[in-house]
Target: glycerophosphodiester phosphodiesterase
Amino acid sequence: MVRSLALIALLALSPVPAAAADNGLLVIAHRGASAERPEHTLAAYERAIDQGADYIEPDLVATKDLVLVARHENELSGTTDVASREEFEDRRRDKIIDGQRVAGWFAEDFTLAELRTLRAKERIPSVRPANARFDGLYQVPTFSEIVKLVRAKEAETGRRIGLYPEIKHPTFLLQDAGIDMVDLLLREFRQLGITPQDPVFVQSFEIAPLQRLKQRGGGFKLVQLVEPIGGPADEPGMRYAEMVTPTGLTEVATYADAIGAHIGMALNPDGTPTSLVADAKAVGMVVHAWTVRPENEFLPVMLRTGSDPKGKGCGDVKLAALLKAAGVAGIFSDGPLAGRSCP
Model:
């Protein structure tokens, strides 16, 4: 009860901006406008851009023939119709990915031509049933297509739109399939004419790929992702909790420009800031927080509207305001924030 009252008081003292992207707070469209379209589709990215997002965030995996495509995971059955496709039944595998057994169909076992026959579907239809209306309409996009979309929308809108790719499971893919995600990403950057002067952040939960990008990437902004539990897959003895201590952040700052942190690492349960933002700033880094989602199910109880877990209100905008007040420089969001206001 005390925490709830403290959060309510803080909200009363912190005016919610008419646009959550005001005053330099970057809005990063998490997998596109994933609260309104199936994630990691061109439709989701375009909708996010139209809603005012500063950056779009494609998670990148690789095909068997070494093309970068956008999926939240290399396992495909959660976000495509592959499980219903009889012609690919023999591709089903069990793999140990970052210490966890995963069963399904994996992007690295498909050529791009094969992958293009699949169609995207909503990953969490029980929470986002309206998104399921779009199941079957969209292909899995390549990174090249995403960049072309961004450039087309820049020409249409007259504003810069950033890219915020995450390289997924780079150590696993190198060891299991001989796929070097760092090489692939830098190759595609060169082919697409993307330079460090463009609005680009590259993120990873692992350490060595970011260090390699620091050495070879020529100045691209890099983001070390962290979460409350666990640690980087390529450093089994290290914990994320250790990495966000002042000593740990000093080391991270040697190769990264920002920390991409779970919201719970930037805000206490009562909505007041933790020390993370201040500690990161002390070593020259900023913090981007993930993930602001509009549905009640993903919001703190005191920010929900009504009792329906799928219900939406202003909780996401108010949460963004708390993160802004905490000094966070950017937020990952599943839904639109720019231009919205709350009572």
